[in-house]
Amino acid sequence: MSKPLKQIHLAAHFPGVNNTTVWSDPEAGSHIEFSSFAHFARTAERARFDFLFLAEGLRLREQGGKIYDLDVVGRPDTFTVLAALAAVTDRLGLTGTINSTFNEPYEVARQFASLDHLSGGRAAWNVVTSWDAFTGENFRRGGFLPQEERYSRAKEFLATANELFDSWHGDEIVADQATGTFLSDAKAGAFVHTGRHFDIHGQFNVPRSPQGRPVIFQAGDSDEGREFAASSADAIFSRYATLKEGQAFYTDVKNRLAKYGRHHEELKILPAASFVLGATDAEAEELAREVRRRQVSGATAIKHLEFVWNRDLSAYDPDGPLPDIDPDPGEHTIARGRAQVRMYRDPLATAREWRELAAANKWSIRDLVIETGNRQNFVGSPATVARTINDYVQADAADGFILVPHITPTGLDVFADQVVPLLQEQGVFRTEYEGPTLRDHLGLAHPDHVPGQRAAS
């Protein structure tokens, strides 16, 4: 008996200041005006995507003491944008990255519970930790927490937030509708939490939301991050670009679920992926080469190399060979506030690997950055891209993908118009939303219906 086809989950990352974006394209628009966010969200919703995802920017990124060019117009607040999008969409999930290092559980739980109410059950929280003191300079706490402490705090932060979400149960509250007075002894929202990182008690002031709790995402790739996702998350982002790497990550993370009493379907694995479409595969390949050249200018290639080398490499020719000097493995002072730094945990090993690749392929610095900087790219005709996405999902390399177009805000339109219908024809992607909440879209149970997931009253 053949294995039933898995249903594909699709989401869209508003690219904004992401390096994927080609700002020189005539169609490129603002990444801060609300009309851009609204167009992008409405496109994702008409394509029946699961959710829209917004990253977080707590500080403008710097390099060489100068603000990075993509950040010069600013980075708007995630909650403000998602709340506004709740008013112009009906079913699309609304996912935002909110830091657990520089916030407090009560504040974040209140904001997400409010967003879940405003959106009718479509809120999701990507729980992240801060990794650098540079970002911490904007906050009282600073960036003093080492990695193991950051995850310890994040785990307790999420557990505390869940206690707050669960503290107001509708079946415990009886009120006189005429007078608005409580008729029972139950204290709505009462909570007490005493732990290593948080010692709080009081009353949570937002009623139980439509989803019970927002959907929880996690993005860490370290062993601690994978374990955190297996124990607590509903979905995890993946950065693996090949089928084999994707399958290895998928198997590893899914196999960790059992120790927490969870099943495979309770955690979705969703890599980010860019795409380039053409009338034919050859046309798409040619366009993809042009897109990558425009994404990685000579100056950008040098700046990217500085992430790893932790040195000023401005004197090097981007069309020449890689530096013969080794990276400085000390504290990062060149690239500040750049997420890419975290991807290269061993800069000396990365430099050796890159030199070998460059020598074998006769690549310049710019060539190397172009070739090694790709996420999982889907390049080809609509039929080819639809087939490739389905192949990855059916082969358990992913449960779906978070698409990152290279044009803001219209870059998602062509995928919605040309690829989604093909996936629908294959029976692997919805033609209509099955329910009103993001948990419905992702096939996740309401926390009140999952044993052990609701706090004791």
What would you note in describing this structure?
With 457 residues, this protein is of the alpha/beta class. The protein folds into 2 domains: 9-281 and 374-449, TIM Barrel (Alpha-Beta Barrel), CATH 3.20.20; 297-372, no CATH class. The protein is built from 15 helices and 14 strands. It has helices at residues 34-46, 78-86, 105-119, 133-136, 147-165, 223-232, 243-255, 281-295, 298-309, 347-361, 365-372, 382-394, 413-418, 420-425, 438-442, and strands spanning 9-13, 51-54, 62-63, 66-67, 93-99, 123-128, 190-194, 199-203, 215-218, 235-238, 268-277, 335-336, 376-380, 400-403. Strand 9 (215-218), helix 6 (223-232) and strand 10 form a beta-alpha-beta unit. Helix 3 packs across helix 5. The protein is globular, with a radius of gyration of 23 Å. It starts with 8 loop residues before the first strand and ends in a 15-residue tail after the last helix. It comes from Streptomyces cellulosae. InterPro entries: Diverse_substr_monoxygenases, Luciferase-like_dom, Luciferase-like_sf, NTA_MOA. Keywords: Flavoprotein, FMN, Monooxygenase, Oxidoreductase. This is NtaA/DmoA family FMN-dependent monooxygenase.
